[in-house]
Design brief:
The complex is a heterodimer of chains A (118) and B (227).
Chain A (H helix, E strand, L loop, with lengths): L5 H16 L11 H6 L3 E3 L5 E4 L28 H23 L14
Antiparallel strand pairs in A: 1-2
Helix pairs in contact in A: 1-3
Chain B lengths: L9 H22 L7 H16 L3 E4 L2 E3 L4 H8 L1 H18 L8 H22 L1 H4 L3 H30 L5 H33 L24
Antiparallel strand pairs in B: 1-2
Helix pairs in contact in B: 1-4, 1-5, 2-4, 3-4, 3-5, 3-7, 3-8, 4-5, 5-7, 7-8
Classes of the chains: A mainly alpha (118), B mainly alpha (227).
């Protein structure tokens, strides 16, 4: 079996952690394309919630997990914790996705490139 | 591009919940053939990377931003089946832990970003594979184009769902705004995807699914083991 590219994996993870943990502070806080469409036609308050007019977002309910400790990419709702929430998210995603893919993978590794399973 | 609960009505949420479940079932069944000791950790990292980059909203117009969806990026790096699962896991964790994207909207969000985005992006990339295999520059261009198309077509998924079970704004307006915004967001998606795929190809070209030479072809039904 060929050696695993561990250094590459580590570098990739570091990049993801830096993006979520540091660069995330520079992200735009404006609504994304879809959210901008759903509030189109409404007057918004300072929190961006529709207060008048007619728009799609008026049909939206409170989020079922709005009380989550990581809701809105913060830790416990505290300001300035986006980076910590991001790092937690990256690690949890890696564990869940990596774990699932590790379980699903083909065990035989003589053939180093994946072939199709019929 | 995460929809909240209630943006479309309950029957529409149920329909696309079923679409998502069926689509993901196919993906899980097919993903196994693309996963081995080397690609399984890579796929986990790609999912984590997509989570990270989805946090990075970039401005496209005054008061409007966009973020990576990641379909083409995942499909090019780890294949469409594994890639769609990567994006789905990101969407699931965002909804469960970060209150981003409604729980009842998981079906529509997975359909748009994970299934449509990934498979459309992959389809474009495969159609242009001859360009992608020619040089790293070619691969980067293909990554950009595939990512732009994946963003715009994913936004059409929302328009379809809105047409079936949404209300509040004229359908034509929704169509115009969604495609207009996402034509711009797609440029950002294209740049991020091109940079990422280009960087991986520079360091570990063997970890780029699209150009590895063993990717399942959409046209060849039966193929022997190539190496």
């Amino acid at each position: 079996m060929k050696k695993l590219p561990v250094a590459f994996y580590a570098g990739f993870l570091v990049v993801a952690l830096l993006l979520a943990g540091v660069v995330s502070y520079a992200a735009s806080s404006s609504p994304d394309g879809l959210d901008a469409v759903t509030v189109s036609g409404c007057e918004l308050d300072e929190a961006g919630e529709p207060v008048g007019g007619t728009c799609i977002a008026q049909n939206a309910g409170e989020h079922a997990t709005a009380g989550s400790p990581l809701a809105d990419y913060t830790v416990g709702g505290s300001e300035g914790t986006t980076g910590i929430a991001g790092v937690i998210g990256v690690l949890v995603t890696l564990l869940v996705a990596g774990g699932l893919f590790w379980v699903l993978r083909r065990r035989s590794s003589k053939d180093e490139t994946p072939s199709r399973v019929k | 591009m995460h929809m909240s609960d209630g943006i479309v009505n309950a029957p529409t949420s149920v329909i696309f919940g079923l679409v998502a479940v069926l689509g993901l079932a196919v993906c899980v069944a097919r993903a196994r053939g693309d996963l081995d000791d080397r690609t399984a950790p890579m796929a986990g990292l790609v999912a984590a990377f997509v989570f990270a980059v989805q946090m990075l909203n970039f401005p496209i117009l005054p008061g409007v931003s966009g973020h990576l969806l990641g379909g083409a990026l995942c499909a090019i790096l780890v294949g469409p089946y594994v890639g769609a699962i990567c994006v789905s896991i990101v969407l699931l964790l965002q909804a469960l832990l970060f209150a981003d994207g409604g729980l009842s909207a998981l079906g529509t969000n997975i359909t748009n970003m994970a299934l449509i985005g990934t498979f459309v992006g992959y389809g474009v990339a495969v159609a242009l594979r001859r360009v992608a295999t020619r040089s790293r520059g070619g691969l980067v261009v293909v990554a950009f184009v595939a990512a732009w198309v994946n963003t715009v077509v994913a936004s059409l998924g929302f328009v379809l769902e809105y047409a079936i079970g949404g209300q509040g704004l004229a359908l034509g307006t929704v169509f115009g705004l969604m495609t207009g915004f996402h034509a711009l967001i797609g440029i950002g998606e294209g740049i991020i995807t091109a940079l990422t795929v280009g960087a991986v190809a520079a360091v570990r070209p063997d970890l780029v699914y699209l150009t590895r030479g063993t990717a399942p072809s959409l046209t060849i039904k039966d193929q022997g083991v190539r190496s």
